[in-house]
Specification:
163 residues
């Protein structure tokens, strides 16, 4: 694999993991509100993730401007926006779970459980995929998946503790 493609994959993986942790934590935290429904959680999570995405794009653009010593072209800004998309895409499973609840398919409690479950499961899965891409053996794959998944499990534990 070419070095720039590998770097791009690495950054996409980091953004996806970060987005998954962020979204899982948001769902867990926002769902603790009194009388909050799935629609309100979905809107709150979506707006918050979009703000974080915009902040990441902004920080990246500023960093690139400083490194280049010039203003960036619209194409370069668009590239930065595109590179940060995995942070948003990481939220699709949670958004689907919350959206189906908002449409009346099941309760908000079920949606929250599904959204957090998808987040935790995704983190474990990303660990497996990343270790496999590195050519890691079974033990290293297991350790990587567990470390990755632990971020989600900590969120679950905090939710249980607060609740």
């Amino acid at each position: 694999m070419e070095a720039s493609a590998r770097s791009s994959d690495t950054h996409a993986a980091a953004r996806t993991i970060y987005g998954t942790i962020l979204i899982t934590a948001l769902v867990a935290g926002i769902s603790e509100g009194k009388d909050i429904d799935a629609w309100q959680i979905l809107v709150s999570v979506t707006v918050t993730v979009l703000v974080f995405w915009a902040a990441h794009v902004y920080a990246e653009v500023i960093s690139q401007r400083l490194a280049a010593g010039r203003s960036l072209s619209w194409a370069e800004i668009g590239q930065s926006m595109s590179e940060e998309l995995p942070m948003i895409q990481a939220g699709f499973p949670a958004a689907i779970a919350l959206g189906l609840s908002a449409l009346g398919f099941y309760s908000t409690e079920t949606a929250v459980t599904l959204a957090i479950g998808f987040g935790v499961a995704s983190l474990f899965a990303y660990g497996v995929v990343l270790a496999h891409r590195e050519g890691a053996g079974r033990t290293q794959t297991f350790v990587t998946a567990c470390v990755n998944g632990t971020f989600g499990l900590v969120i679950v534990a905090l939710k249980a503790f607060v609740h």
